């Protein structure tokens, strides 16, 4: 009896232009395009194994070793159903193929980083799930096509299907067929970029991205301005900066967009605060670090960015990593009292191939 099983890993991605708001909550269609950097596989990734077997009685998922519910009609069920649909098309075209689409699935997924740290675990998780099913079902699909399905698990997951620098184009079609991830540049294009992840707090965040962004869509007037007048130009300018390996522009836009995302969170009713005092102190440190460089006739050397939580990601060039790590360790010493609330999680390069 043959064994039908496949494993895939997908890394976390961290957005420079933030996705925040859906125009369709079921299909997960965003109100604006976004752009991110996929981190490398070594530090933060999800690894998922999927197995199809006629003896299995139901689809079942284990997350970090614990059974997790697959809610009917939920995001997970949608992704699985979409992948089975693609497999069924392959089978109907070639009658000799085993009928894998009809078998139930057992899926096991592990993160190699603390899920509670609020570090885009769902992005890596859904990308790895979709990639493992694509391998199991031997689907001839491109990463962009798979991103359309990963998007329905968690919006930001669609960007983890590629390594390097990735845009999620919001698209205009009502069925979401053109709301896809596309590669802006591969990792090899700019290998000097590094991301430093500073775990400020591993508390579970107060307001989830899913809930928070819809509250913003419903109540923020600033969001409208952001969608119409800010993001399109930033997407163009940051893509160009990446292509030109222009760190100064990349850093400026990344920090501006993080600031604006947290501004629309604050403009939400009731307001959402994701940053804490330590997050703000890190912003002050990076601003000062850049100021010293610019005043000496240099350029911006680092960019902070924050997602829906207090943890900082600092983008910088390889040559500055050591200096920034020692600054952070100096100003945010990991004393006993501090150890649990602040730690330098790791420095990581840009990811090579997205999923493997
Ligand atoms: C602030 O992708 O987690 O990290 O689509 O509802 O699952 P859902 O939201 P999610 O939102 C991520 C928001 C963000 C910005 C970003 O990654 O672009």
UniProtKB/TrEMBL annotation:
Classification via SUPFAM superfamilies:
GHMP Kinase, C-terminal domain (SSF55060), Ribosomal protein S5 domain 2-like (SSF54211)
- The protein's annotated pathway: Isoprenoid biosynthesis; isopentenyl diphosphate biosynthesis via mevalonate pathway; isopentenyl diphosphate from (R)-mevalonate: step 3/3
EC numbers listed for it are 4.1.1.33
List the catalysed reactions: (R)-5-diphosphomevalonate + ATP = isopentenyl diphosphate + ADP + phosphate + CO2
Q: Which cellular component terms (GO) are annotated to the entry?
A: cytosol
Alphabetically sorted, this entry's keywords are:
ATP-binding, Lipid biosynthesis, Lipid metabolism, Lyase, Nucleotide-binding, Steroid biosynthesis, Steroid metabolism, Sterol biosynthesis, Sterol metabolism
Q: Which GO terms describe its biological process?
A: isopentenyl diphosphate biosynthetic process, mevalonate pathway; sterol biosynthetic process
Ranges of residues in domain Mvd1 C-terminal = 195-356
**Per its UniProt record, what Gene3D superfamilies does this chain match?**
3.30.230.10, GHMP kinase, C-terminal domain (3.30.70.890)
**Per the similarity annotation, which family is this?**
Belongs to the diphosphomevalonate decarboxylase family.
NCBIfam families, per the entry: mevDPdecarb
User: Can you say what this protein is called?
Assistant: Diphosphomevalonate decarboxylase
Q: Which organism is it from?
A: Piloderma croceum (strain F 1598)
């Amino acid at each position: 009896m043959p064994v039908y099983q496949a494993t895939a890993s997908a890394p976390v991605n961290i957005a420079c232009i933030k996705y925040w708001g859906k125009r369709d909550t079921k299909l997960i269609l965003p109100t604006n395009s976004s752009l991110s950097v996929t981190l490398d596989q070594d530090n933060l990734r999800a690894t998922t194994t999927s197995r199809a077997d006629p003896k299995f009685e139901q689809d079942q998922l284990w997350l970090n070793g614990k059974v997790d519910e697959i809610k009917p009609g939920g995001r997970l069920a949608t992704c699985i159903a979409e992948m089975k649909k693609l497999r069924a098309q392959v089978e109907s075209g070639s009658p000799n193929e085993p009928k894998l689409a009809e078998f139930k699935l057992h899926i096991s997924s592990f993160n190699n980083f603390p899920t509670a740290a609020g570090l885009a675990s769902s992005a890596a998780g859904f990308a790895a799930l979709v990639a493992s099913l694509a391998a199991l079902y031997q689907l001839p699909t491109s990463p962009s096509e798979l991103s359309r399905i990963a998007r329905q698990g968690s919006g930001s997951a669609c960007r983890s299907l590629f390594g390097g620098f990735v845009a999620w184009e919001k698209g205009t079609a009502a069925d979401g067929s053109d709301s896809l991830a596309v590669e802006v540049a591969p990792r090899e294009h700019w290998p000097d970029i590094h991301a430093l992840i500073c775990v400020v707090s591993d508390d579970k965040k107060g307001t989830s991205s899913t809930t928070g962004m819809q509250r913003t869509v419903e109540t923020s007037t600033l969001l409208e301005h952001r969608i119409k007048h800010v993001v399109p130009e930033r997407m163009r300018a940051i893509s160009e900066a990446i292509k030109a390996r222009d760190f100064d522009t990349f850093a400026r836009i990344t920090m501006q967009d993080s600031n604006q995302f947290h501004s629309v969170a604050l403009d939400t009713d009731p307001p959402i605060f994701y940053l804490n005092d330590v997050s703000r102190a890190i912003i002050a440190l990076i601003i000062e670090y850049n100021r010293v460089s610019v005043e000496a006739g240099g350029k911006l050397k680092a960019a902070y960015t924050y997602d829906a939580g207090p943890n900082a990601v600092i983008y910088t060039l390889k040559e500055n990593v050591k200096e920034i790590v020692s600054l952070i360790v100096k100003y945010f010493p990991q004393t006993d009292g501090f150890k649990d609330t602040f730690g330098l999680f790791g420095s990581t390069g840009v990811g090579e191939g997205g999923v493997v």
